[in-house]
Design a protein that fits this description.
By secondary structure, this protein is mainly beta. Helix content is about 15%, strand content about 40%. It starts with a helix and ends with a helix.
């Protein structure tokens, strides 16, 4: 059995380990906004207030746009002023606050820049050339890749300042797919992060064309102010998916995955008022163009007055409380049982006898009645 002192220590430390402050990770997205998140260890139990600022900023204000999961804040998108070119080379500070709990951290975003994938086009004159447009072209290096008729990808590095990649003209019967991605070059404070690959650009065909079709599994879900839309399309050559809504948006992210001849495009966007937003997905290839309006599903969950999910939280509190109480009772039970087993020593025993003692004769007269 563990010593009594160890159990008492566990009782005192139980509340300390019950709640751990989350860690904050930040990334500068397309030199437009700083994206910070604090759900690496899972969704927090409470809604934290977030503050972020660069060294030298005179005003420190609360996060203007929170990201959430199940009505719990898990991240923040904070606008970034790219007119001050050296700003990302200074320290970025973050602070999470909930009641008396405060967690402050320093970040260095010079090499934590992730660009959006550049829009690309293809031309076929003397060579087959992929061209694209990216911000700060003289500060950005790129990688271009292509494959012919479902063969393996061939990838080449493109030096800063260049936004074109050309290959020899393939056979007209070939199907060629081309893509490009970018990141900040070392001459301008190199980044560790590449952008996602651009939407595939397709040239030629060696099979019959299949008209693009948007699948019914495409959907949009709104949680708080975060809108996530998924558009899934099939076709041959491989369709290209675009979102007309993005023409008027500055902050968004698009991720594209490809499997055989199916394209899955996921859009994440922050919206404050979705009542006037129409979500249209457009899929196109050589066979034509297909459009679909995607219905927005609002995901709502009940929460208590503190913004917490009541049932799971109460369950956790009850289990922790019961465990702490049991641990605290064990030492006292142990002491009570130990005390009960102690036997008194022989010399500590006290006896009483009811036997009549002998009296002296001189006092006998006291005990006889008078005649």
């Amino acid at each position: 059995m563990l010593p009594t002192g160890l159990f008492l220590l566990l009782c005192l430390a139980g509340h300390v380990f019950a709640k751990e402050l989350p860690d904050v990770d930040c990334l500068l997205v397309h030199l437009k906004y700083v994206h910070c998140s604090w759900n690496k260890q899972g969704t927090p139990e409470v809604n934290y207030t977030f503050y972020g600022w660069f060294h030298g900023d005179e005003v420190v204000s609360e996060c203007p746009t929170y990201l959430s999961e199940n009505n719990i804040n898990t991240g923040c998108n904070q606008p970034y002023d790219d007119s001050i070119s050296v700003r990302r080379f200074t320290t970025f500070y973050t602070r999470l606050v909930h009641g008396e709990d405060v967690h402050q951290k320093e970040h260095y975003l010079k090499d934590k820049v992730k660009l959006n994938p550049p829009p690309a086009n293809v031309s076929d004159q003397i060579y087959l050339c992929l061209t694209w447009t990216q911000i700060l072209p003289n500060c950005v290096e790129s990688e271009a890749r292509y494959r012919i008729s479902d063969s393996s990808w061939e990838t080449s590095r493109v030096r800063p300042g260049m936004q074109e990649y050309c290959i020899n003209m393939p056979s007209a019967k070939s199907l060629v797919e081309l893509q490009v991605r970018s990141k900040m070059d070392s001459a301008c404070g190199g980044s560790l992060f590449w952008s996602e690959w651009s939407e595939p650009v397709v040239w030629g065909s060696n099979k019959s064309t299949v008209y693009p079709m948007i699948l019914n599994s495409s959907k949009c879900e709104l949680q708080s102010v975060v809108l996530t839309c998924v558009c899934i399309s099939e076709g041959f050559p491989l369709p290209t998916i675009r979102w007309p809504l993005l023409k008027n948006q500055a902050e968004y992210s698009v991720t594209t995955t490809v499997s055989n001849h199916t394209v899955n495009s996921t859009l994440t966007l922050t919206v404050k008022d979705h009542s006037n937003i129409s979500i249209e997905c457009v899929s196109s290839n050589e066979g034509g163009e297909s459009k679909a309006d995607i219905i927005i599903i609002t995901s709502e969950r009940r929460e208590d007055e503190h913004g917490l999910s009541a049932v799971p939280l109460l369950t956790v509190v009850a289990v922790v409380s019961l465990t702490v109480n049991v641990l605290c009772m064990i030492p006292f039970i142990f002491l009570w049982i130990t005390r009960k087993k102690v036997k008194p020593k022989q010399e500590d025993r006290t006896y009483m006898s009811l036997k009549k003692t002998e009296t002296s004769p001189e006092y006998d007269v006291i005990g006889h009645p008078l005649s």
